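Model it.
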Amino acid sequence: MLFNNQVLIDIYATYFTITADRNGYITSDVNIRLFLESLRETEYIKYLRKTIVKDRYYAYDMDTGRYHIPLHAYKNLDTYLKEYDVEYTVTEHKPRVPKNHTSIVMNPVWKDRPEHEAALAFLTDTSRTMRINNMQWGKGKTYCGIKVCSIFNYCALVVCDGVQNQWKMNVLEKTLCQDDEVYIVQGVQSLVKLFNKNKKSGYKPKFIIFSIGTLRNYILKTTSPYTELPGYQEFLEIFDIGTKIVDEVHLNFHAVVMMDLWSNLPHNLYLSATPKRSSGKNRTIFNTIFPESIIGGRNEFDKYIYGRMYKYYIPINKQDRFNSDKGYNHTKYEQFILGNGHLKQDYVKIIMSLIRSEYYEKRHENGKLLIFVSTIVMATTLRDYISYNFKDLDVRTYTSDDPISNLYEADVIIGTPKSCGTAKDIRNLQTAINTVSLGSEPQVEQMLGRLRKLDGFVVRFIDIYNNNMYKHKYHAKIRRTIYKAYCIEFFETNL
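Modeled.
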């Protein structure tokens, strides 16, 4: 590549580009890859004794010779280029506005509540192309997202993970949209069908609800039939997408960033009560891409959860057996407990006693219980024990193999923090019990967020840990701080 020391930067709604050769040189002696190290997520692999790059939060377009970089990393790049006395030219591009509007009308039975005011004002502030709605869980993030779509009146792309049907139900409930005006893309065949319907009849739904996994595969286009479909940018144009909503943006974070690197939409809205990540480098990258300046909409935090932390004591030797390359592994802990008859009986007794005292004896009509475990085997084991001891309760598991109906129909639901800890609205959830030793702040906050305010009833979050396990005590210290911050009342005691 021949250099004339003319570096070109183009700024779009959610990303910017910079000229470079395939080896990363933006001038004959300055390489942008040194800067891009700050946007690489690494992971140490113990058995390899080396650190590998897990994810890159940027992309290189071989066809154009440009790096695509998240929008809010621009200030850091500006500093970097000035350090090397690199001169550059900046061109700002207006977002691509769809050719056609649509009409999204709210159902008149749904009204804005006082707690929606700040969020709606923030989300409709077009001075920013990217806006994160940071409302407290249960206060109406989904409603506000849908309401904003009705204000802008552009076809909307909704991106979520595992709750596509829940989103469709919310849209149909809160707007006057008809069933065929809301389309779910989950799996490549549903995407092929969408393109075919458009080609045949001009079909353009008002809401396209995309599973994040399908969208990731579509953007990457590494396999057939994705490779035969129009590109992602063309998709946005064909279906007149003007508003994009990403639900629980802290999840599948890399996929979300990849999506933003290839679109220039006017309204990019992100929903999360916990817009953060847990570890140091990951958190730094998140804060770079989604700085505090684009987060808003939260009112004063409403405390309504009664927190309880119980210490139990089960003697465990050789505690390093529960470690993996990534540190403590609660899956190994559960496997060990279940593989030892005496420990299994002691552990189950602890949980049964808590179910009785913190849920069953205090249960109001239709009140539900959610139990967090780490493995499917532990979930099914507890299901059988609870069903035997509490024969009047409908007890089910909700893991990757279970139908969504288990989550909403059962009295007692047993699942993992991943399957049940995020974006799942369980009506009449009265009590949650966490048995998993974890120290991820966002994950703990999301688990707390499954409990919604029940007028006239107390809701409880119960947490247990083994006081003999040093890792359990370390994680409990982190969780304790969170519970004290978010619970209206908190205490800790021994079992």
